Amino acid sequence: xxxxxxxxxxxxxxxxxxxxxxxxxxxxxxxxxxxxxxxxxxxxxxxxxxxxxxxxxxxxxxxxxxxxxxxxxxxxxxxxxxxxxxxxxxxxxxxxxxxxxxxxxxxxxxxxxxxxxxxxxxxxxxxxxxxxxxxxxxxxxxxxxxxxxxxxxxxxxxxxxxxxxxxxxxxxxxxxxxxxxxxxxxxxxxxxxxxxxxxxxxxxxxxxxxxxxxxxxxxxxxxxxxxxxxxxxxxxxxxxxxxxxxxxxxxxxxxxxxxxxxxxxxxxxxxxxxxxxxxxxxxxxxxxxxxxxxxxxxxxxxxxxxxxxxxxxxxxxxxxxxxxxxxxxxxxxxxxxxxxxxxxxxxxxxxxxxxxxxxxxxxxxxxxxxxxxxxxxxxxxxxxxxxxxx
Length: 390
Description:
Strand content: 15-25%
CATH topology: TIM Barrel
Oligomer: single chain
Number of strands: 15
Number of domains: 1
């Protein structure tokens, strides 16, 4: 009995002290413009389910030296509604994610250009975050050294991160406030890492790294494959989470800094022949846009679970912890509660830093499928909280 009570006390102390797996939830700010069933705003969030919530996205001004809001009413209206989530959960860290796929490399290139620009940008980041009550910044440059960014930007990005780290540490001492947090979203593909990041140098200065373990497959493969498989199939597939994250560890990155990204959306494909619908079936392009997200090739989990309620049969790819379904001539790969719990078990077993979600607004947040609200996020929450797997 004494041993059991001691273990329980250790668990409670660990959870209360903040020593828990990160649950990093990205919030797509444009979800406010979706049709009624899919409208998602900051007040839609249950903030206790996440340890960090990232507002996606802000951008930079043409000089690259100043953070700039993307939408007309982000600053200050949406930013304040977002950071007010800390009233409900004082332990929550609210981050501003800067960049994203739509922001070209030019702006980051301008920011990292010289020591002077890096230091000015870092100082301005501190001022912006503090004035808007954010707890940190998430850098989402896709990607240094590519998409219009020259190879020398890879090293300059490391120096940019160091400049921000120093500015954050200095501000923490001078202000007496908790030090601002610094994270980055990284593409996980091993074949391009050395052309994109200085690993492990750059990771030393980040509090944690959000590895985007989705979009591992797509229409470019010309066949149907799951976009976020945990393990590989029998054909020796290497673009799987297990292989990729082990590659990061071999490069010397600290395990507890790595946060594994999981998708709350499905990838869809049009089958060339609906009678041949297993993994590897030939496709002709992306599936049609859904009525909520309105993006070809993508469906939110909410859109998928409605299909399941209407009779679509979920199948699972052997050994991959990856579900899919076929709806007419459309192949849909996605994650569900079962596959996400398996991924959380993997995180706990190997001692990684937690899970990142793209994106919280893609969950069945209002319970339209007939179950609880946020079924995917709650499955992850229950699995990761205190490292206890149910």
